[in-house]
Write a structure and sequence with these properties.
By secondary structure, the chain is an alpha+beta fold. The protein has 6 helices and 12 strands. Helix 3 (141-155) crosses helix 4. The protein starts with a strand and ends with a strand. It comes from Cognatiyoonia koreensis.
Length: 280
Amino acid sequence: MTTETLKTDDGQLTIWFDGPAWGDHAKVATVGKCKFPSAKAGTRLLHQAAGKAISAGATGLIGPMEGDTWHSYRLVSDQGTTKPFMMEPTSGPHDQQAFADAGFNIISSYFSASVPMSELPGARPHDTDAFTIETWDGTDPDGLFTQVHDLSCQAFANNPFYKHISLEDFLAMYRPVVPLLKQDLILFARNADGMLTGFLFGIPNYADGLNPKSVILKTYASVQKGAGHWLSYQFYVNAKAMGFDTAIHALMHDDNLSAIRSGLNGADVFRRYALMGKTL
């Protein structure tokens, strides 16, 4: 990725000049790694970033986003009262105001919610012959994440702000967390031919310490109708058996199916996030 960091005595940010697709824009840049000691300083840096993006041919600028949605993106728009969970994006107290004052608007909204395990897993989905659910056997993590990469690229290709990521870059992101993974929280759906049709990635919330009582449903994807429902059901069954008392539904888009299912499971929203955009 082509990047440039702007650093002054009162703040810094980084620009990625080859950002993801956004609407009708022919070329989009992103800004991330923002450190704004004040809204005024952040606004000034964002104006400078917009000027550089225009010079590079961009017609749209979005942020906070470290190049694409595979990496850190979004700012916290409603902090709530709970402490951050593992892998949760954070932002400074002046970030949202700085983006707004620099002419950015909210272009996508997200939330995280929690639900007591006592209220899960809910009704068992209907049995099906279309796929089977299995847990990771704990071996060959590169093989695991290669399968996850391939299905992710397929399942997320039509999502807003999608940008392809190479297998090498994808593995580089996930290898550091391998020692933290628990086999029973990594689930797959496979069809009768053994082909991967869905996956769910969960992880204990180690932000609570070495023996956390909350577990994060981080990501799931499916190209098979009904697989997502079964994956989440089995995740809750396994997590409950492991002794977790709270499930965190992490970073869901306001409009997607997982958000609807979270609400049906009785989850309470504890944090909100926003992605900001500006036409140049």
